[in-house]
Write a structure and sequence with these properties.
298 residues; alpha+beta; five-stranded antiparallel beta sheet; 5 strands; 55% helix; SirB1_N; Transglutaminase-like domain-containing protein
């Protein structure tokens, strides 16, 4: 297996354009999941130009074109996707993929046919959606999977499955169809908790993108030398219409860690202003961090 490539960021001008497009797409009436994930990939990989972005979309279109015409039931759709993506093309994941940034970048997952559960699920979702399947993402705790059937918004169209008929598949395991017991085991293995009905709700595209960025932030947090990756992942997350206020604190801490003391201190002070209304003690702690950061300027 080829060793992972070190991150090669785009130029500042290219990055600014990518972020503008990311924010615009995220705020559109119907955000496109593939487009958003590919823009994340372009922020990570400075070699991914417009031709590369288009090529990834074209490959997803091509794969969709190889599916049978409207297989029928949710189970038939699930089997068709498993046969095509999991068996014929070998899309799947292995434990080593968790150590690679490439495993969170859609263009690399399309190329390598390997990745994290959520990115492999994005491939399943985008190929199935292009073919007209009633498909949706399912953000189980610790392990993203894909659902086919009546719980999908896509299922409201002609020829859709009856409401409630659905099948779950695990793209990380090559598209294996999951029984109820399998889904329970995935949740129990990740959290020790029981599977709840709310965990099976369809995941909105922006929620999927937020989770992708969260994975990238986690990858970078375990590698202090990759703080630049953590910083752009936080900054993209802050462009999503809904995001946790604590992301501003995370960005401030990263700026301080990278030696940008004045900018980090300013961000810490701004975050303290936000937090003060609900927790004065935390706000004062954050202001203390800001004072420490400013002292490093001396």
């Amino acid at each position: 297996m080829r060793p992972p490539r070190p991150p090669r960021p785009p130029s500042p001008q290219r990055s600014a354009e990518l972020r503008r497009r990311f924010a615009q797409e995220a705020r559109s009436e119907r955000p496109d999941l593939a487009t958003l994930c590919l823009l994340v990939g372009a922020e990570a990989d400075g070699t991914l130009d417009e031709a590369g972005l288009d090529a990834a979309q074209v490959e997803l279109d091509r794969l969709a074109g190889e599916l049978p015409f409207r297989p029928g039931t949710p189970r038939a759709w699930a089997v068709a996707l498993r046969d095509l993506l999991g068996e014929r093309y070998g899309f799947h994941g292995v434990a080593a993929d968790y150590q690679r940034l490439e495993s969170s970048l859609l263009h690399e997952v399309v190329r390598r046919r390997r990745g994290l559960p959520i990115l492999l699920s994005v491939v399943w979702l985008e190929v199935a959606r292009r073919a007209g399947a009633p498909v949706y993402g399912v953000a189980l705790p610790g392990h993203f999977v894909v659902g086919f059937g009546g719980e999908s918004a896509a299922a409201s169209g002609p020829g859709s499955a009856p409401l409630g008929e659905r099948v779950l598949v695990d793209p990380y395991d090559g598209g294996r169809l999951l029984s109820g017991t399998d889904a329970e085991a995935l949740v129990a293995g990740a959290t020790g908790a029981e599977l709840r009905a709310s965990m099976l709700e369809p995941a909105a595209p922006l929620d999927v993108v937020a989770r992708v960025l969260n994975n990238i932030r986690g990858w970078a947090a375990a590698r202090p030398e990759q703080s630049a990756v953590g910083l752009w992942a936080v900054e993209l997350a802050l462009l999503l219409p809904a995001h946790a206020a604590r992301l501003r604190y995370e960005r401030a801490v990263l700026l301080v860690q990278r030696g940008e003391f004045a900018a980090g201190a300013g961000e810490l002070e701004a975050y303290a202003e936000v937090v003060e209304a609900v927790d004065e003690a935390v706000a004062e702690e954050v202001r203390g961090e800001a004072r420490t950061a400013r002292a490093m300027l001396n």
